[in-house]
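step: validate -> pass
step: tokenize input -> pass
step: predict -> running
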Amino acid sequence: MMPSKGGRFEVTLDGTPIFQKSKLGRHAQPGEVERLIRAR
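step: predict -> pass
step: emit ->
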């Protein structure tokens, strides 16, 4: 976890972006981030 400002929510795995609220313009759906991580 890394603190940030401006309502950012980004998840990276091994340096690769998995979910970026700023690019998608929405919050993650329940379970979405977990599914994206498991898919990797």
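step: describe -> DSSP finds two helices and two strands in the chain.
step: cleanup -> pass
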